[in-house]
Amino acid sequence: MNPAYAYIYDDFLIEKPYQDILDSLETRLATLGLGGRIGRLTLFRNAQELVEDFVRQGVKTIVIVGNDNTLDKVMWFMPDLSVTMGYIPLAEPSGIAQLLNIPTGLAACDVLSARLIETLDVAKLNDRYFLSEVTFENTTATLTVDGKYSLSLTKGGNLSIRNLGRALTAEGHLANAQDGLLEAVISPQIPSAKTRLWTKLKVVPPQETKVTFRAGEIVSQQPLGGQADRFSVSGFKFSVSVVPQKFRIIMGRKHVGQSLAAAYGE
User: Do 109 and 150 fall within a single domain?
Assistant: First the structure.
């Protein structure tokens, strides 16, 4: 057992269908010399207390075992701890694992063993950290960037603020989570009838707007709901900012020698 590692199991892994995969996982980790202490999240067990207790015991790498919802349970405090985070996704949703090039299942153990550590920026929405992106759909909100100018969705549309992620659709390139900047993507909402008319007239419809910034404010006259990673948020006003080089995480690589910038499509 490696005392420098601890594994945080989500509560759904106690269900019978996951017992065989957990047995295989623990055997694989032991073979790789990565066996460590195990902590289990429960309805009545505070995730922060569990993780911080491991850190006090000298654990240097905290590995989250579960899915992207498990990450949401720890991301709000993990960047403030002096640890490296690993991730072993065993179930859907696993979109963040894909962004990090981590495969689902036992193959994630090989990523953990390779220990390719990157130090990433993280973003904050009000006082809550998020890793990938926050999205607001069908909104007329205004985004003020770096206190210099504002962008408004006066007729409605979608707003995404990315740190590491894709804006609204899987086709977008990855935002660079090592440049000390956030990327805002504003996509105007176009009624289908008008889209057909523009196509017939061969008129180019309004395009999405992209800007990079360090800190901003989102204000809406109507109640605004969105998703930060997979955590639901709501309100009329949000501050958003980037915290550069804040979070150490073990990532996968598509092939040997690929730079992180290349992985982001830059």
Answer: no
Give the count of beta carbons closer than 10 Å to the beta carbon of residue 180.
13
pLDDT in tens, 47-105: 999 999 999 999 999 999 999 999 999 999 999 999 999 999 999 999 999 989 999 99
Kindly give the pairing relationship between strand 84-89 and strand 61-66.
parallel
Q: Is 255 a member of any domain? A: no
Q: What is the pLDDT of residues 200-229, one digit of tens each?
A: 545 444 578 899 999 999 999 999 999 999
**pTM of the prediction?**
0.87
Count of CB atoms situated within 10 Å of the CB of 137: 15
Tokens 């707003």 correspond to 159
Per DSSP, helices labelled H in the chain are 19-31, 47-56, 68-72, 95-99, 108-114, 192-201, 260-263
Instruction: For residue 235, count other CB atoms closer than 10 A to its CB.
Output: 14
Which residue's entry shows tokens 């899987």?
A: 170
Query: Which amino acid is present at 145?
Result: V
Same-domain status, 12 and 104: yes
Neighbours of 214 (CB within 10 A): 15
Length of the chain: 266
Lowest mean pLDDT among 118-132, 191-205, 209-223: 191-205
Domain count, the chain: 2
Contacts of 258 (CB under 8 A, 6+ apart): none
Q: Domain limits at 63?
A: 5-115
Q: Which residue blocks in 32-107 are alpha helix, DSSP H?
A: 47-56, 68-72, 95-99
